[in-house]
Design a protein that fits this description.
alpha/beta, seven-stranded mixed β-sheet, 15 strands, 36% helix, binds zinc ion
Length: 491
């Protein structure tokens, strides 16, 4: 009677001791991560390199490759394991080499203008009267064939509905808010763009000029990597400036522009590359499981890709540096991924999920994916994608970060970034909630996405936040709850 009881007591005591030691270790690690992240931060230096030294990092451009190689070099320097570039097929690359758009009649005025990515060049410098077709139907445009040959064409109506605000900020209080990308006002044209573009090619227009719907000289520009080499070169002008041109031209007043656009395609390597590296796990039972932290390294081409998404990249890189610098061994493997092709449809993350999580056994090895994307300020918490069990765990992990500005996790989801392909494959992927600042209203996908919008303390805080969650996830006893869709699906 006494012996089994003694053994049981001993086993229980050992278990309690181990559990509380682990608890203490985790608490201790949270404090050490914070000290390393606050006192020896590399975050601002890396942010400056990505935004000032390298600048815009369009997928397929030499600048994106420069950034990817730079990240590999940092990972090597810190002693992370197997820093590498992983290829996937992307298509041809593109780079802006020169753009100049000036109004020369009725007076001189330089215009704030950028081409859409993958636009072809103009045939040298194009000077001449603009042809305004913003208020014309397809049939009316057909009838203007002779005027449109070699012409500078204003394709849209003047902008009346400007982008004036951000999406609502989640996680400030208990109230639920609408999450995800807001639907922003778009410039309008009488003939839809899908009908207009082939018409202008057929008519031999020299260049198409359209407005941005952002305010005060801010120009929002993206682009389509499937753009044909013989497409009409496409330029976006600041909304208020376009409105001057379009209003005058619509009244039949003479308006002339001088336009030069020089772009370059890169056909040789049709791959793009994700950057990967890891800190190996040490627990024999768990080390094959992976806690993945990631952010997209690529950006659009008009500014420095600062809030979208150098800040997220820095959070992930600095989180890895911090954990490595502490010289501690996680139970699970912690891996970092810097995706490319996010802006063209989450392509890098999608390719990675397809390449690495294509069997039930491989999917079981992903413990959790933590992504850092939209927003430009501090990290407040995570969007929990409707996963209540995971939220209970994340809520515990968030508590010690509250005095650094974390507020709460929310049960709602967010779409349109790199955790989505993980969720679609039935894997638990979550994105951070960040302070938006002027993200939608000013910086996202615009010529105003410069680093000045994000403060150093926010960069440091986001890195500490990511490092803490990565560490907790790597040490966690249980398996993270899979998304509801995966739990229902038959295996
Ligand atoms: Zn973006």
């Amino acid at each position: 009677m006494r012996r089994p009881f003694a053994v049981l007591t001993l086993v229980l005591l050992v278990a309690i001791a181990l559990a509380s030691a682990q608890q203490r270790d985790t608490g201790d690690m949270v404090a050490r991560i914070r000290t390393e992240g606050l006192q020896r931060s590399n975050a601002l230096t890396m942010y400056r390199t990505l935004t000032d030294d390298i600048g815009a990092r369009l997928t397929g451009s030499p600048a994106h490759m420069q950034a990817a190689r730079w990240a590999v070099d940092r990972f090597k320097e810190w002693g992370l394991i197997n820093p590498r570039l992983e290829p996937y097929e992307f298509g041809r690359g593109w780079q802006l080499e020169r753009v100049s758009v000036e109004m020369t009649e009725p007076r001189y005025n330089p215009l704030i203008a950028y081409p859409e990515a993958w636009s072809p060049s103009t045939a040298g410098v194009i000077s001449g009267r603009v042809i305004y077709v913003g208020d014309k139907t397809g049939a009316q445009i057909q009838a203007m064939a002779t005027q449109l040959r070699g012409a500078i064409v204003l394709t849209h109506l003047p902008v009346t509905d400007f982008v004036t605000r951000d999406r609502p900020q989640p996680a400030l209080d208990e109230r639920p808010v609408a999450t995800g990308n807001p639907s922003l006002p778009q410039p309008r044209s009488t003939t839809p763009a899908t009908e207009l573009a082939p018409l202008l090619v057929k008519m031999g227009a020299a260049v198409a000029v359209r407005p941005s719907a952002y305010r005060d000289g801010t120009v929002g520009v993206t682009g389509n990597r499937a753009t044909a080499s013989d497409a009409v070169p496409s330029i976006v002008v600041a909304g208020e400036q376009y409105n001057v041109l379009a209003r005058l031209a619509a009244q039949g007043r003479p308006v002339s522009l001088r336009v030069e656009l020089r772009t370059r395609y890169f056909e040789e390597d049709r791959n793009s590359y994700n950057v990967l590296t890891e800190i190996p796990g040490q627990d024999p039972a768990l080390r094959d499981q992976v806690v993945l932290v990631g952010a997209h390294l690529d950006s659009w081409h008009t500014a420095s890709g600062a809030t979208d998404n150098a800040d997220g990249t820095v959070a992930v890189m600095e989180a890895m540096r911090i954990i490595r610098a502490l010289g501690v061994a996680p139970r699970r493997t912690i891996r970092a991924a810097l995706w490319s092709g996010e802006e063209q449809g989450l392509l890098g993350a999608r390719a990675y999920v397809t390449q690495h999580f294509n069997t039930p056994a491989s999917r079981d090895q992903l413990a959790v994916y933590l992504n850092d994307d939209p927003g430009g300020g501090k990290t407040l918490g995570f969007y929990m994608e409707g996963n209540k069990a995971a939220k209970a765990v994340f809520d515990r992990w968030l508590t010690p970060l509250k005095d650094l500005g974390a507020t709460r996790n929310i049960i709602e989801s967010i779409g349109s970034t790199d955790h989505v392909p993980f969720n679609e494959a039935g894997l638990p992927g979550f994105n951070v909630i960040k302070e938006f600042g002027a993200y939608d209203e000013r910086t996202r996908h615009t010529n105003a996405d410069y680093p000045d919008r994000t403060r150093e303390d926010a960069l440091k805080q986001s890195a500490i936040f990511m490092a803490t969650f990565a560490w907790q996830a790597a040490m966690h006893e249980e398996t993270m709850q899979r998304p509801a869709s995966a739990r229902q699906a038959p295996k």
